[in-house]
Every structure is written in C-alpha cells, then in structure tokens.
C-alpha cells in the first residue's frame, strides 16, 4: 500500500482539509516573479503543471505521491517569512528552510508518514529552489552533493521545473535554462538520480567538514576512539537505546548532571555550566582514548557540530545515532517518564527539529 498525503487532491477539498493550504490564499508574492498572485494560485498552477508532466506520469506511484506532496508544501512557509518591501516587492527569505521544518512536523504529527518518505519530502521542500539558484551559491558542487545525499536529484529538478511552469513571469526561459544546467552539473558530479558516492565514510565526512575539501580525497582512518552522539527529542527512548549497548561504555548525560545540581532545563546560565562540566568529562575520556556516549537531545545541526569539533580535536570517530518513535508513542513515553517534559516545550522542539544528515559525522544511524 502506497503512502498518500490525501486521497482527495481537489483544491477545494485541500483547503477544507488543511488550514495551511487555506493560509496560502492570503500570502501575496513579488509581482515580477509571480504575476499570477497569491501562493495559493501559484501552488495550484504548480500542481497542474506537475500532473501534465510526462516525466511525472512515468514515475512509480509512490514517487508520484512524494513529489505531489512536496509540490503542495514547497511554499508553505511564505506565510511566515514574506515581507512587503513596498512597490509590489515581496521577499520571503528563509521560506524553504522553515518550510522543511513545517513539512516535517505535519508529516510526523498530523499525517503519520514513514520516516524515509517524510524526510524526502522535507528535503524537496528545503532544496526546491536549488536547481535554479545553485550557480549563485558560494560552493555549488558541495551544495549539490549535500542535496544528493538527501533527495533524488531527478525529483528535485522535476519540482523546480513545475515551480517555474506554475508561475507568470518574464524570465521563465532563463529559469528553465538554469534547471537544465543543474542536471548537467549533476551528471558531471555523478549524482543524477543518486547520491554522490565517496570512497569511504571518512572521506565523505572530511569533504563536508572541511571548507576547501577535495571531493575525491581519501583520508586515513586513524581514529583513537569512537564517540556515540545521541540525537532525539526528549522522551524518544535514548536511555533505552543506551541499555542495548555494552555496559562498560561510559555515558555522559546532561540530564543526569542537571539532576545532580537540581538545575532546571530552562535555566540558561546554569545549563551553560552543565554543558561545560559535561565537556570536561568528555575531554577526560578523550585524553585517555576512551570511547563514550554523549546523551542529550542534540536536535540542531549547530549543537551537534560544536560537539563534533571537540571530539575531532582528540582524533575520535563520531557516530550519530538519531532516535525517533511514532508521534503517539513518543507523547505516551514522555507522559510516563519520571521527569516529564511539558507538552508545549515538546511542540516547540519538534518545530525546530533538524534530523542529522549523512555529511555531519563519520557514521549516521537512524533508529526509527
């Protein structure tokens, strides 16, 4: 049975089913790039263009559903990012990134979606403008390779093409040319319809972690120990995962340190001291070349990156383990915890969740 966002894809029905679709009617766009008007009009035109595209109709049924859902959601967060600059000029900086968060939340909380399908749709929303603007990026090849690890670049180009077709503007031909150049770059980098491959996991990590990294460089694997960096929202089962590991692996737990000093998770100053104590404990293990588990939520890339940089300083191999349970099970587990996290806090954290990606560490495991 294929996953579907909805069985009824009629636009009027979509507006009745989803408040976020209704909201599109009230979000206007830049008059030069979108003469057609609101996000709702544009999105309808995109969906119509998609369903007329021969490449789309040739896709397997499940991929059609994935691409259709991404097309519906691709501009969902223009509602929160659009700024009227005057004179018909409307900007929506960051709408793709915020749209990724919203797509993830909707497909996790409201419409239960298999993890890999959800993350593919979220990635399509995040990168939907990349085929058109990639050559304007600081490092287009690295950005392309990053995207290819998350999403099929063929689907990404299809989405970009219908995003262009589903609008009224004077520079359509230039935008279409940019999309064709994107495909050429994908083929050149051997990531058209597949992830860019690397000789080793370490080579992949080194490339993404080094600003001017050479894409085909193969570093020596000379690790002194392995650090397991857990990632997951509160109540997902990180402690349960730890119990499946050998008992002699040390665990650094931020929650345990907070409880030791009776520190509230909302006390920023005190939590800064908690993190510093945890880092010092980590350094003591790293100096002894002793592997350990870092047990904390680590739900943002920035948070994980700071820790990974610390571990790398001591020559550690870093393995991220992302842990997730279905929404209802997650909420139930949280309610049954000895130290329950308020529901409102969980909602906020879910809305900002950044699922770890393959380029972030030497190894990334999804326990979902």
Shape: globular
Rg, rounded, reads: 22 Å
Question: How far is it from the N-terminal to the C-terminal residue, by CA?
Answer: 20 Å
* Share in helix: 40-55%
Structural class: alpha/beta
Domain HD: 40-135
InterPro entries: HD/PDEase_dom (IPR003607), HD_domain (IPR006674), P-loop_NTPase (IPR027417), tRNA_CCA-adding_enzyme (IPR050124)
Organism: Bacteroides intestinalis
GO molecular function: nucleotide binding
Give a brief rundown of this model.
This protein has 368 residues and is of the alpha/beta class. The chain has helices at residues 11-17, 19-23, 39-52, 54-57, 61-73, 78-81, 95-110, 115-127, 130-133, 140-148, 153-165, 172-188, 201-209, 238-242, 254-261, 268-287, 301-313, 327-335, 343-351; strands at residues 83-86, 89-91, 225-231, 251-253, 292-295, 316-323, 363-367.
Report on this model:
- By secondary structure, the chain is α/β, with parallel strands linked by helices.
- The chain has two domains: 11-188, Hypothetical protein af1432 (Orthogonal Bundle), CATH 1.10.3210; 225-367, 3-Layer(aba) Sandwich (Rossmann fold).
- Helices cover 52% and strands 9% of the residues.
- It has helices spanning 11-17, 19-23, 39-52, 54-57, 61-73, 78-81, 95-110, 115-127, 130-133, 140-148, 153-165, 172-188, 201-209, 238-242, 254-261, 268-287, 301-313, 327-335, 343-351, and strands at 83-86, 89-91, 225-231, 251-253, 292-295, 316-323, 363-367.
- It has a five-stranded parallel sheet.
- A hairpin with a 2-residue loop joins β1 (83-86) and β2.
- α3 runs antiparallel to α5 and α3 packs across α11.
- It is globular, with a radius of gyration of 22 Å.
- It comes from Bacteroides intestinalis.
- One of its GO terms (molecular function) is nucleotide binding.
- Residues 40-135 form the HD domain.
- InterPro entries: HD/PDEase_dom, HD_domain, P-loop_NTPase, tRNA_CCA-adding_enzyme.
- Keywords: Nucleotide-binding.
């Amino acid at each position: 049975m294929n996953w579907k966002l909805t069985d009824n894809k009629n636009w009027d029905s979509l507006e009745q089913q989803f408040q976020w679709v209704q909201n599109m009617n009230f979000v206007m766009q830049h008059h030069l790039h979108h003469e057609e008007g609101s996000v709702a009009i544009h999105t309808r035109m995109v969906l119509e263009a998609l369903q007329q595209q021969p490449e789309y109709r040739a896709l397997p049924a499940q991929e059609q559903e994935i691409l259709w859902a991404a097309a519906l959601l691709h501009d969902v967060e223009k509602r929160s990012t659009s700024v009227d600059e005057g004179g018909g000029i409307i900007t929506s900086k960051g709408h793709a990134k915020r749209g990724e968060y919203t797509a993830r939340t909707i497909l996790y909380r409201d419409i239960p979606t298999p993890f890999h399908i959800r993350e593919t749709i979220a990635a399509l929303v995040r990168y939907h403008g990349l085929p058109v603007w990639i050559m304007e990026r600081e490092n287009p090849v690295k950005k392309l390779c990053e995207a290819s690890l998350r999403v099929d670049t063929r689907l990404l180009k299809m989405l970009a093409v219908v995003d262009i077709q589903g609008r009224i503007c004077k520079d359509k031909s230039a935008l279409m040319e940019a999309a064709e150049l994107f495909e050429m770059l994908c083929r050149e980098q051997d990531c058209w319809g597949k992830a860019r491959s690397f000789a080793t996991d370490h080579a992949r990590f080194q490339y993404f972690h080094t600003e001017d990294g050479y894409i085909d460089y193969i570093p020596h694997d000379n690790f002194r120990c392995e650090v397991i960096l857990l990632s997951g929202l509160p109540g997902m089962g990180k402690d349960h995962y730890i119990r499946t590991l050998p008992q002699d692996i040390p665990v650094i737990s931020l929650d345990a340190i907070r409880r030791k000093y009776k520190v509230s998770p909302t006390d920023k100053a005190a939590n800064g001291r908690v993190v510093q104590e945890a880092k010092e404990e980590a350094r003591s293990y790293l100096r002894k070349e002793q592997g350990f588990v870092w047990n904390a939520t680590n739900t943002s890339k920035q948070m994980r990156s700071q820790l990974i940089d610390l571990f790398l300083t001591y020559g550690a191999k870093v393995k991220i383990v992302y842990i997730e349970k279905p929404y209802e099970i997650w909420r139930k587990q949280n309610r049954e915890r000895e130290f329950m996290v308020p529901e409102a806090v969980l909602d906020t954290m879910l809305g900002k969740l950044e699922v770890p990606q393959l380029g972030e560490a030497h190894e990334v495991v999804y326990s979902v």
